[in-house]
Design goal:
The complex is a heterotrimer. Chain A is mainly alpha-helical. Helices cover about 75% and strands about 0% of the residues of chain A. In chain A, strands 1-2 form a two-stranded antiparallel ribbon. The radius of gyration of chain A is 24 Å and the shape is globular. The relative contact order of chain A is 0.14. By secondary structure, chain B is mainly α. The longest helix of chain B has about 35 residues. Chain B is globular, with a radius of gyration of 23 Å. By secondary structure, chain C is an alpha/beta fold. In chain C, about 35% of the residues lie in helices and about 20% in strands. In chain C, helix 8 links the parallel strand 7 and strand 8. In chain C, helix 5 crosses helix 7 and helix 7 runs parallel beside helix 8. The C terminus of chain C is likely disordered. Classes of the chains: A mainly alpha, B mainly alpha, C alpha/beta. At the A-B interface, helix 1, helix 6, helix 7, helix 10 and helix 11 of A face helix 6, helix 7, helix 10, helix 11 and helix 12 of B.
Chain lengths: ~325, ~300, ~325
């Protein structure tokens, strides 16, 4: 178990280093930070001083090392656009994004997985056909349009839910939460549906496909031949085998939720990391982009690690360490 | 030619097509979108880019069937007096162009690299698949955003605006190739070990020819399915990027750009500026996705 | 016992697959019986309908396949038209099944003990603790060493042969009266095949279980079965006591099939072979399905389809025996 975790962390390291290298390369070579920071009027001496100050006269690998060391301490320099430490900016906005993503993920999972199982088991019922049609519309609707439509109906026409912002938040240490106030929860409704709907339909379709695949397996036929009740065959044998690939999918989708939060936050002017990132892309604010990229990768790597651990718990074939666990 | 046609109409593919009204309907919708976009300069009632014909007095006209609507503007006008219907037709042109080009780019890149990885194996295979693994961990929209952001930062604004269309195509294409490479690699490895390929190798057919004439045709089925489904995704990605304001330049508005512009007027009640481009986008993507779904089921007899 | 109702009676069974290019008849007018404790071997080429017959008996035909005509009786009671839930209670309890590939028939995520116990608690009025105890007993009986320790192992921790032993235990653990064994040794190493067959044979004898043994291995049939049915293109070509079918086959197809097995007791220059291939289900010739390949075919063979006719000690679906049949009947 312990060795398994260690090996997975070791496998994740090269990925993180690659991403760090890309971030650093962006940082170092895209645009000219010196020119941006100095503004219009400067002397050659000032420029030289800043170059030395930023360590830009050092060899590449030294600079990269310094960058890594700073990054590990959460230090990403100043935003070109806002002239504030990037770490402060991100810390301010992380809670908004994480609360939104969390709510959307729960929504997508709690509805998407059961719907996928249902449509897989009873694939010819009219309700399944209805869900399937609904899901196809779901994957064809871009996230931002869902948001716009929801705003139009619930904020503009009905006027029952807010269309932008987080509502009132409560500070818990440095974390500001919207879960504890009525306006905060109301503000969360439309954005989390917007963010969750696409993932919900995707998860549902993938779970259904896996379920159909597993139901064709020999061991399911054999379970039927042993006369096990449908309940045991479907929700025991079939569902448990479906879990293995579904965990991977869901892990990937959690990553996608964080990414699509960028779109949702733009539509709803949600003061999170995604909005910060898109403004940075627009203004070529490289330090913020680099920091965001690193942070997101760290998040993905963590999610992947959790996925691997869940695998380990579900699939006994991995526990022997004998192989791939593939059928 | 006639024989080929007859074979097509006798095929399982055509049969399952005629048996599915939804598929036929989506084919019609997709065809309308494509033709409307392709022939926009001739079909559109107005030219939204002809500044001389724009009249600010015509701004914010609602659709023609409402009380204040005017017959000249079927779907109303936007804040600058542009005809929404014409803007949609021109916008769909850009959306389709980017979607198709990006998919073509991703397909070509993915199929080539997948063939090489699957056929040659070894270090190249390991390296390419590792890149795929890493890239697939990241949602494609994020990859596209990053590429777009980096190019934006690296180039001066004027230069960037000129090549923005290509940047978007490149960014979306790059973010989608691993799916193709993975599939093609898998099928290639299976095909490579089949006897007819072994035989071709033994008699000394050159590897590029084996790949092109023996392996490639056998992996085209799944590639076609992924490409169709990917087209819908690429159109959505472009719309999303443009909605975020980092996609195609403002001088060549796509459907996503139109929706972003209209979004500013949603609260003041001018819903048609957003909603009609939105409906067009949905119709386009939904019909392409339905076609892709059908193609997948029709080419995969296991699911029937 | 014998002479009364047979344990299993299949009469005029017809299985169809509707497809877009018309209905395929996978099984046509298949009739046979299995008495209590008897082993019926079913042989034939791939696609002859052997496995399909087994699937029809346990009520697990793959859709869109369906029983279009005929009936299947267990102890005189029809089981081919039961509701799913009623048939489910029969599967495992009255009719056990063994599949071809032990690598895929066991659920990889459950221990073998759990799979055995759930089968027993489904069909027998016993507590989980009792089921576990019996599961160890079954593993021991099918020859798994250190059964008490291996009961909590997962399928992937067993070899292929050992897994097929587990599958046999699973098929027998609710003490069914009939086992449908569909090519139980085909996927195994040759060295293991004999062990598995010997195990099946001794267990069936010991428990008095009847067995329908589907295989294309004539050697297995010869040493295991009491009677044998030879299938060709969805029909039974010949059925009779195993010794007669092997040594003095009546149907020209059986003769050809037996001729293609290398004899151990004498040298032959060249094995007999049957020209051509079995027809596809979509293109079964008129008359006797075997007539285009049959060395003894005559005019009637390409016109009318023969039913099973008495041919000495066996029954053969062949016009060669029309006279004999008329004489006896």
């Amino acid at each position: 178990m312990f060795a398994f975790i260690i090996s997975r962390i070791l496998q994740a390291l090269p990925v993180m280093l690659t991403v760090a290298l890309i971030s650093f390369a962006m940082f170092a070579y895209v645009g000219d930070p010196v020119a941006i920071m100095l503004g219009q009027d400067f002397t050659e001496a000032q420029r030289q001083a800043l170059v030395k100050d930023l360590g830009l006269d050092q060899p590449f690998w030294v600079q990269f090392g310094t960058f890594l060391g700073n990054a590990v301490q959460g230090e990403f320099g100043l935003s070109y656009r806002l002239s504030r430490p990037v770490s402060d900016l991100i810390a301010e906005r992380a809670p908004a994004t994480l609360e939104l993503a969390f709510t959307a993920a729960i929504l997508a999972l709690l509805i998407g997985v059961p719907l996928g199982v249902y449509t897989g088991l009873y694939r010819n019922s009219w309700l399944s056909r209805f869900f399937l049609t609904f899901s196809l519309v779901g994957v064809s609707l871009p996230t931002f349009l869902i948001g716009i439509l929801l705003i139009l109906v619930f904020a503009v026409w009905l006027g029952v839910l807010p269309s932008f912002g987080r509502g009132d938040t409560v500070k818990l240490g440095w974390w500001s939460t919207g879960f504890l106030t009525w306006t905060g929860i109301k503000a969360l409704v439309l954005p989390s549906i917007t963010l969750g709907l696409f993932q919900l339909t995707l998860i549902m379709r993938l779970v259904r496909a896996e379920m159909l695949e597993v139901l064709r397996a020999d061991y399911i036929k054999f379970a039927r031949a042993r006369g096990l009740p449908n309940r045991a065959v479907h929700f025991g044998h079939a569902l448990k085998n479906t879990l293995v690939p579904v965990i991977t999918i869901v892990g990937l989708q959690l990553g996608a939720i964080i990414a699509f939060a960028i779109v949702t936050e733009t539509v709803f002017q949600w003061p999170g990391m995604g909005l910060l990132f898109i403004q940075s892309v627009n203004q070529a604010d490289i330090p913020v982009m680099a920091a965001y990229l690193l942070l997101i990768s760290a998040l993905f790597v963590t999610i992947n690690l959790i996925v691997d651990l869940l695998y380990y718990a579900v699939d006994p074939r991995l526990r022997i360490g004998r192989g791939q666990g593939a059928h | 030619m006639a024989a080929t046609l007859r074979r097509f109409f006798d095929s399982d593919l055509w049969w399952s097509f005629t048996r599915s009204p939804i598929t036929m309907l989506s084919a019609v919708v997709a065809l309308i979108c494509i033709l409307g976009a392709l022939f926009a300069p001739w079909l559109a009632p107005h030219n939204p880019f002809d500044l001389a014909s724009l009249n600010l007095l015509d701004a914010f006209k609602p659709p023609s069937w409402t009380e204040e609507g005017e017959r000249a503007y079927l779907l109303g006008t936007d804040d600058q007096g542009r005809d929404v219907l014409s803007a949609i037709m021109y916008g769909a042109r850009v959306s389709l162009l980017v979607g198709l080009s990006a998919t073509l780019f991703a397909t070509t890149l993915g199929v080539t690299l997948g063939l090489l990885a699957g056929y040659l194996g070894g270090k190249l295979d390991a390296l390419l698949m590792r890149i795929c693994d890493v890239q697939l961990t990241f949602p494609s929209i994020l990859v596209a955003l990053l590429i777009d952001g980096v190019v934006r930062a690296a180039l001066p604004r004027e230069v960037h605006d000129q090549i923005a269309l290509f940047v978007v195509i490149f960014a979306i294409g790059i973010s989608e190739w691993p799916k193709f490479a993975r599939t093609v690699r898998g099928s290639t490895m299976v095909e490579r070990n089949k006897e007819y390929v072994q035989a071709a190798r033994v008699i000394g057919v050159a590897p590029p020819r084996i790949m092109l004439s023996h392996v490639l045709p056998n992996v085209m089925g799944p590639v076609l399915v992924i490409a169709t489904l990917n087209l819908g995704l690429a159109i959505l990605s472009e719309a999303t990027l443009s909605f975020l304001g980092v996609g195609v330049p403002a001088t060549q508005p796509s459907l996503g750009t139109l929706i972003r512009i209209g979004n500013d007027f949603l609260f003041s009640g001018e819903w048609w500026i957003t909603i009609f481009p939105g409906i067009t986008l949905i119709a386009m993507v939904l019909s392409v996705n339905l076609l892709g779904d059908w193609l997948r089921d029709a080419l995969n007899p296991k699911l029937r | 016992m014998s002479g009364q109702n047979p344990l299993l009676e299949v009469r005029h069974l017809r299985v169809e697959f509707p497809t877009r290019r018309g209905t395929l008849v996978a099984l046509d007018d298949v009739s046979f019986t299995i008495s209590a404790g008897e082993v019926l071997g079913v042989v034939g080429e791939s696609g002859a309908g052997k496995s399909m017959t087994g699937a029809a008996i346990i009520g697990l035909l793959e859709p869109p396949g369906r029983i279009a005509a005929g009936e299947i009786r267990l102890d005189g009671e029809r089981i081919d038209n039961l509701r799913y839930e009623d048939m489910r209670r029969i599967r495992g309890k009255d009719i056990g099944a063994i599949f071809q590939d032990p690598l895929t028939t066991l659920n990889p995520l459950y221990t073998v003990g759990r799979q055995l116990a759930e089968t027993m608690t489904t069909h027998l009025p016993i507590t989980p603790a009792e089921a576990r105890k019996r599961a160890i007993g079954w593993l021991d009986l099918v020859g798994i060493p250190a059964a008490a320790q291996r009961i909590d192992s997962y399928p992937h921790e067993f070899s292929g042969g050992m897994r097929q032993r587990v599958v046999i235990a699973l098929a027998l653990c609710a003490e069914p009266r009939l086992i449908v064994a569909d090519e139980p040794t085909t996927a195994l190493d040759v060295s293991i095949q004999a062990q598995i067959i010997a195990l099946l044979k001794s267990l069936a004898r010991e428990k008095g279980t009847a067995m329908m043994l589907v295989t294309h291995d004539m050697g297995v049939i010869a040493e295991t079965a009491d009677r044998v049915a030879v299938m060709y293109a969805g029909r039974i070509a010949e059925i009779g006591p195993v010794r007669n079918v092997v040594k003095q086959a009546s149907h020209p197809y059986t003769v050809g099939l037996m001729g293609s097995i290398p004899p151990l007791d004498r040298r032959v220059e060249r094995l007999a072979q049957i020209d051509g291939a079995m027809p596809r289900l979509s293109a079964i010739p008129k008359g006797c399905a075997y007539n285009p390949r049959c060395p003894k075919a005559f005019a009637r063979c390409s016109q009318d389809r023969p039913d099973l006719l008495p041919a000495g000690p066996t029954q053969a679906a062949c016009w060669l025996y029309a006279g004999e049949g008329a004489g006896n009947g």
